[in-house]
Amino acid sequence: MTATYHVTVTHENDLWVAVVDGLPAGMNSATDVERFADLDAEVRDLIAGLLDVGRHSFDVDWRFADGARVSAGQMRALRRLSATLSRWRCPACLSDVRHPSVGPGGVECPLCAHVDGRRAVRFTRRPTRAGYTWTASLDEADR
């Protein structure tokens, strides 16, 4: 049976902070990154390094401070969506950003860490031969 680690993510002081539950006592269970797109790899490196296991030998259950939960498949979809965005103009610092990262709250500016929630992330689950896969897209928020 594959181990599952629960990770709680917050956005504090221009950093994405991830706290991992379920690690042995006394181990550093937190890490942070500047870009949301780097979060999955950093958390997997932390767990794998502390436990001396492979990066994909366990599952991660993502929970966000606002109560949202994102599956591993949805995290992969967010990374793919981030890779497809070529340009975006940050409404906070007015920078023209190439390849911004996309998090569950919207598009994130790597320069000022502003998260533009006016563009909501929508997840779609599509069937495949192996089961299903997630895709993510940006839509105007219903706010």
Describe this structure in words.
This protein has helices at 39-51, 72-84; strands at 3-12, 15-21, 30-33, 58-64, 69-70, 87-89, 96-98, 101-103, 106-108, 115-116, 119-128, 131-140. It is α+β, with helices and mostly antiparallel strands and 143 residues long. The strands form 4 sheets. It has a 5-stranded mixed beta sheet with strand order 3-2-1-4-5. The protein is globular and about 45 Å long. The mean pLDDT is 76.
Whole-number mean pLDDT? 76
The stretches of 5 or more residues where confidence is low (pLDDT under 50) are none
Radius of gyration: 16 Å
Which structural class is indicated by helix and strand composition?
A: alpha+beta
Proportion in helices? 10-25%
Strand order of the largest sheet: 3-2-1-4-5
Strand segment tally: 12
What secondary-structure arrangement, pairings included, does this model have?
Blueprint (H helix, E strand, L loop, with lengths): L2 E10 L2 E7 L8 E4 L5 H13 L6 E7 L4 E2 L1 H13 L2 E3 L6 E3 L2 E3 L2 E3 L6 E2 L2 E10 L2 E10 L3
Parallel strand pairs: 1-4
Antiparallel strand pairs: 1-2, 2-3, 4-5, 6-7, 8-9, 9-10, 11-12
